[in-house]
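User: Working on a comparison across species. This one is 2-methoxy-6-polyprenyl-1,4-benzoquinol methylase, mitochondrial from Metarhizium rileyi. Can you predict its structure so I can line it up against the others?
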Amino acid sequence: MVARRALRSCTNNSFQPSRCYNRIAARSFCATHPRREQQRTPTADRETHFGYEKVTESEKQDRVAGVFSSVAESYDKMNDFMSLGIHRLWKDHFVSSLNPGATTPLGRPQRMLDVAGGTGDIAFRMLQHSHVRNGNPNIHITISDINPNMLAVGKQRSLDLPASYQSNLSFLEANAEVLPPQIKDNSLDLYTVSFGIRNFSNIPAALREAYRVLKPGGVFACLEFSKVDQYPLLNAIYKRWSFSAIPLIGQLVAADRDSYQYLVESIERFPSQGHFRDMIVDAGFAVLGDGYENLTGGIAAIHKGIKPL
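Assistant: Here's the predicted structure for 2-methoxy-6-polyprenyl-1,4-benzoquinol methylase, mitochondrial from Metarhizium rileyi:
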C-alpha cells in the first residue's frame, strides 16, 4: 500500500510542497567519483558524454569527480542563486510524496538508500518526515555517494541533527552503477536519487542495481532536472538563464565557471521525461500513469517505479 500511494502521487500534477522542517541547507546536484579502482565499472571504456564532449565512462567519472570536489563547499549558496530557492520546494514535495515512515502496521521498520545523496539534504528531510509526520523512528537511511568530499559535508551537517536522527543514518562511499556487497539483493524499501543520476556514466546500469537491491514492492524514486519543451516561451527563458547566467554566477560566487558550465550542459543532455520513464521500465520497474510528475513546468520532474511483487 505504501508503495502504491507513493507511485500514485506521480500521476497528480498538483504541486503542494510540504512545510517540512528544513534546518539543513540543500543542494541540487550530486556526484560520481571513482577514487578507488574497485569502483571501475565493466563498461569503463565505453563512450559516453561529459556535457557536450564525448568521453569514455571512466573519464566521465574522473571529470565529474573533479567538478563536485571543486564545488562541494559552495554548493548551497550556488543552488539558491541558481534556482531562487525553488529547489527547496521541489525537495520538500519529493519527500512528502514518498511519505517515509507511513507503514502498515504503523511503526514497521523501513530501510532506505539515498544515492548520490552526499550532503544529506534528502535523507535529513526523510528522517524528519518519518519521525515527526508519521511518528515512526524505525527507519534506517544509508546516504551513498561516490564523492568523499560531498559525503564529508553531509557527515558534518548530520552532527546538527537530533541524536535520535543520527542513530538512523549511515554513510557509504560507493558507485551507484556497481553497489558494494553490503547492499544486499531485495533488502530495501525505498531507493532515492535526487539531482544526481544525470551525472552517472551508465544510467541503465544504475537502474538495474536499484532494481536488484529493492524488495518486491519497493519504490525507486528520482528527482531530476528535465525538459520544458511543452512551454516554448518558458523553455526559451529557462535555457537563456541556464547558459548565460548560471556559469557567470559560478564564476562570481564560486570562482568556478567551468564546473557550472558542465552542470548546465548535463541538464541539457539528460533524457526527456518520456525517455527516462522508458529506461526505468526497461530496468524491470512498473510505473503508474505517465510515470512522472512535472514540477515548475518540467524544469524538474519526479519519476517513480515499483519493483513488481
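For your comparison, note: The chain is about 40% helix and 20% strand.

User: Helpful, thanks.
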